Structure formats: C-alpha cells, structure tokens
Amino acid sequence: MKKHILFTLFLFATISLWAQEFNDYFINKTLRIDYIFTGNSIHQDICLDELSALPTWAGRKHHLGELPLEGNGQIIVRDRYSKKVIYATSFSSLFQEWLETDEAKTTNRGFENSFLVPYPIHPIEVEVTLFSSKREKRATLTHVIDPSDILIHQKGITHVTPYKYLLQSGSSEQCIDVAILAEGYTKEEMSTFYEDAKIACESLFSHEPFKSTKDRFNIVAVASPSEDSGVSIPRLKEWKHTAFSSHFSTFYSDRYLTTQRVKDIHDALAGIPYEHIIILANTAEYGGGGIYNSYTLTTAHHPLFRPVVVHEFGHSFGGLADEYYYDNDVMTDTYPLNIEPWEPNITTRINFGQKWEDMMKKNTPIPTPPAKKAVYPVGLYEGGGYSAKGIYRPSEDCRMRTNSCPSFCPVCERAIRKMINFYTE
C-alpha cells in the first residue's frame, strides 16, 4: 500500500511538472499550420499556406522539446524572444516520396501538408526542415507566428463532423487520440463505416503492444460523408467524388492508395480531439498507404483489411519501415547503403549499435539464415526497405513484412511501445 501511495504521489508530481512547463508557453488549443512543399528532384521549397486555431489540444504536454524519431522532416518551435525550443516533432511526406520518381526529374509539383502544434501564448519562431535520404537538408523555412494574428482561421467551433467514440479510455492529456475517418462512404452508408471502424479498432488492439496498452488510447470514428460511394481507381478509369479525393496508382503503383488533399482531412477533424489519423476507404480493391505522422489510408472491404490497416498504422504511428524487398533492388536509392536509416526496424549496419543489437543473442550469424529463425528470433536477416542486399531486418517475418505474419516482430513491438510511452509517460 505504501509503495502504491508513493507511486501515486510521484505520478502526480510529474504531471504537475509537465503542466507547469506546458502552461508557461501554451494554452489548451491547437495551432494548425498548413504548408505547401514544392519543387522537383533538384530544388525544393517550403511555402506557408494557412494558419488555423482549433478549440482544444490533444497532443502531448511533456517531452515537448524532444523528437520521437528523426523522420524525413522536422518542425522545431522556439519562443521568439528567448529562442528556447518549446516544441518539436518529426514527420515524413508524400512529397518526399515523389521526389524519388522519374516525374520529379522533369516537373515541378506542390503537395499539401498540415501539422499540429500547441497554441502559443507569445509569438513563436517555427523552423521546418526537409531531409534527403542521405540526411542532408533539402529545404528549410523559418517564420514567425503571432498568436494574436486576426487572420488565424478559427475552426471546429460552429461546424463539427458527426462522430462516435469506439474507445474512450481517458482524457486527451492521459491518452493518445486516434481518429478514424470515412472515405468514399455516402451519408446512407455511415452505418457500414462505423462497423468497418470497429473492425479496424479490433484489429489494432489484437496486436502487441497495442493490446496491453489499450487503456492509453481513445479511438473516435468520424463520419465524413462523400458524394460518391467507393474511391478512385485510375487503372480502371473510375474516378469518384469523395471526401478526400483519394486514389490508387499513386506514383503509378497500382496498390498505393493515398490522397494529396491533406487540408480536407484536417478540416473534417476540426473540433474533434485527434493526434493520429486512420482513413478507411470504402472499396474491396487491395491497397493502402501509411506516412509517418501524416495518415494511414487503407481499404476496408478487401479480405486482407485487418492485417493491412495494422501494417499501415505501423508506418504512420510507429515510424516503421517496410521490411519486404524486391529481388531486383528496384528502390535501393530510398535507403543509401552508407547511411543508417532513421526507422527503428531496418539497418544498413552503419550505426547498428543504436538499433536492436542489444536484443540479439551472442554469436548470432550475420546475415542470419532464414532456416535458423527459431534459434534466432531476433537477428540480422538480409533484405528489407525494398532492397534484397545491404539492408537488414530484425526477424525472418513480421507484420511489417507480410500480411500472413500474425504479429509484429520483437523489435517492431519494442519500437511501438517506446512511441506509446513517449506520448503518455
């Protein structure tokens, strides 16, 4: 009993310390910052688009100046006068993926991106940086935001999209708020959407570490209506009018389902507490996509819906890399072999000590033979990050490699647990 009391007192003191630091710089509102990332494979720019204020802040109130992962991009918020870092976050973007395509060699394009930061009390200096696969700065924008600016758009006050909580474990301060959005569901199909959202929720919490930390999550299903039923499938010449204009064949990859209408996503969530986003597409076509700290988008009526939504959330929430690969190394440039990837579940062995070396048995063979997977559940199995050679994954199989694997590997599970702890402890 005494230990329990001491722990409770310690927890209360820690939360009070977090609140004090947060309240020194922020109020309980959200500042949404919209950017346009533009350019081509040679030159990139970051343009400020729009500023919005949302009624509440659902993000973390601790670890404010720390990055959960390095990411392909970073946002650093400083107090304008003291220059102290008061908030930081990292992300990836569809724009940066596009930069690796052939089209980017000859064409300029712009991509929407939206980010949430706590609403500042005083003016802030925001620095946004995009990195290349070689971890070099590609583009940087630094700008000042005055929280009293009359042109900051107030959203989520008079119009809020209908929603239902599927899981409500506690307050936003205590829990991670995940919003599940409807894409390609008409108003008449919202009962189907809510059932699909329940399946996504059940699938997520059937996997560790989500299963044992379920009490740290709030899940809200948001009934964002579409004019048409279904989503766009360009290879079939099917184009639909949907809430977020998503489509397959992103970058001409038939199963890659994404949307560039990021502002529409965030507008649909205005007035609802959220940190992470899952979008369910009303189609039986196979596919999906997950972008770190942006969104998961997956099809809801394909037989592999359950494993795919968890896999894609591994990307968008956990910052995990794909562990599958192609024998002809078609995407080797995504991860240069002389650079250690920032994702926690693949390695080029350039700086393996920061990855999962501590989880391996002594004298584990390198590369670890697939036939020895029972002996070495954690090893260095060659092939991952789309490349058959030079990139290693932790286990022979994992939810981040195949849809048939029933779970995350021990390394991915630990990485996700660290992320959950970062947001909630």
Q: What does this entry look like structurally?
A:
The protein has helices at residues 2-25, 94-98, 190-204, 262-269, 305-316, 410-424; strands at residues 26-39, 44-54, 73-79, 85-91, 109-120, 124-131, 137-145, 153-154, 163-168, 176-183, 217-222, 276-281, 288-291, 295-299, 325-326, 381-384, 386-393. With 425 residues, it is α/β, with parallel strands linked by helices. Among the domains are: 22-154, Immunoglobulin-like (Sandwich); 163-319, Collagenase (Catalytic Domain) (3-Layer(aba) Sandwich). The strands form four sheets. Strands 9-11-10-12-14-13 form a six-stranded mixed β-sheet, with helices on both faces. It has a four-stranded mixed β-sheet with strand order 5-1-2-8. α3 packs across α5. It is globular, with a radius of gyration of 21 Å. The two termini are 22 Å apart.
